[in-house]
Amino acid sequence: MLDTLILAGQVVVPKSNGEALRGTQMNELSIIDNGAVGIKDGVVTFIGTAEEAAQLQAKETIEAEGKLLSPGLVDPHTHLVFGGSREHELALKQQGVPYLEILAQGGGIHSTVKATRETSEDDLYEKGMFHLNRCLTYGVTTMEAKSGYGLDKETELKQLRVAKQLNETHPIDLVSTFLGAHAIPENYKGRPDAFLEEMLSLLSIISKEGLAEFVDIFCETGVFTVEQSKVFLQKAKTAGFGMKIHADEIDPLGGTEMACEIGAVSADHLVGASKEGVRMLGESDTIAVLLPGTTFYLGKDHFAPAREMISSGAAVALSTDFNPGSSPTENLQFIMTLAALKLKMTPEEIWNAVTVNAAFAIGRGDVAGSLEIGRKADLVLWDVPNYKYISYHYGVNHVNKVWKNGKLVVGKGDIHANYTLSK
């Protein structure tokens, strides 16, 4: 007997053959009309039509005619743990004040670094819990969390330890990334190589305590060069970590090409990726994680070339880039709309980009982002009639229910509930 049987108007069934979906594969998405999904002991044990499920017995049957059922969403690029906020900077941006001037006034990333250093581990945990609860209500069941707002040994470790604690206590599965090389702190100005060596010295502690699986670096004009980033990531790889990179967000420096050359799991942002970089993405296993919310929030007109990437054969994923400075949103549904309007992605590509490919971008392709018999039941029931509707109707939360490991963790109306529980 099943624990739960869910009958829905449509069921989205993204799946892969053990790897990310590339190029035209991203436009393939199985849809079951009048579908049914069965759950037992926390895993999916049945996928089919309601007619096929008619003979099944279940302790609980949820009749959701006219609603959509899908796997839980995966958000593969966030800066979850940080102190403070930066709403006061929005007015400065509206006035046209350059970011470097905001930085000189004590704002920008240095403002968040200062706040994060001054915030206790307990308070960072509570703040992270608040944001995770909101992510869960938007349908996210697996996500990545980066450090990078410490820029010193003590605070970077503090961020990673908080993320580990959140992973142990919140329903959302967190994958941690060490982004100590997020910027050059004031006390290392003019000495970026020395700072990178200090960050590398943390890897043994991070490995010993199991604080991160990936290492990331911000490769951009005024931060770290392509060569510095390459050396840094290769040393991290030697230490046993997966490689990620913030690449070509503004200028086409060649970070995309380098990421493909060294076998980075993902290259993120890529707004300024060159034609050669796009071509190499199509021939490599590196996943392009695109962050249209950041481009939107910064008021830019030029978005990452998603269509060219998909045409080249690349695997594309989507993410919020949730952070206090350039993308303060937990709403991955809104990112799906931006992907349609600004990246010109199809509904099928978008669904695969926030499920299958997003999972592979954080090393979870074997357990998350797909709907398959035998996998854990991370599911979302949506108050929408079909899979194309979410990108179309923007600015609201379409979630009706969320299950994590077969357990109902969000019911409609639970927006302000506390979801803290042991896994």
What does this structure look like?
With 423 residues, this protein is an alpha/beta fold. The protein has helices spanning 88-94, 99-104, 108-118, 121-137, 153-169, 192-200, 203-209, 226-238, 255-262, 275-283, 292-297, 306-312, 332-341, 347-353, 356-360, 389-392, and strands at residues 2-13, 30-40, 43-49, 58-71, 73-75, 140-146, 173-181, 214-219, 242-247, 266-269, 287-290, 316-318, 379-382, 399-404, 407-411. The strands form two sheets. An eight-stranded parallel β-sheet has the order 5-6-7-8-9-10-11-12. Strand 8 (214-219), helix 8 and strand 9 (242-247) form a beta-alpha-beta unit. Helix 10 (275-283) packs across helix 12 (306-312). The longest helix has 17 residues, at 121-137. N-formimidoyl-L-glutamate binds at residues 149, 323, 325.
Tell me briefly what this model is.
The protein has helices spanning 88-94, 99-104, 108-118, 121-137, 153-169, 192-200, 203-209, 226-238, 255-262, 275-283, 292-297, 306-312, 332-341, 347-353, 356-360, 389-392, and strands spanning 2-13, 30-40, 43-49, 58-71, 73-75, 140-146, 173-181, 214-219, 242-247, 266-269, 287-290, 316-318, 379-382, 399-404, 407-411.
Q: How would you sum up the major sheet?
A: 8 strands, parallel
Determine the fraction of residues in helical runs and give it as a percent range: 25-40%
Based on secondary structure, the structural category is alpha/beta
Shape: globular
Q: What is the helix tally?
A: 16
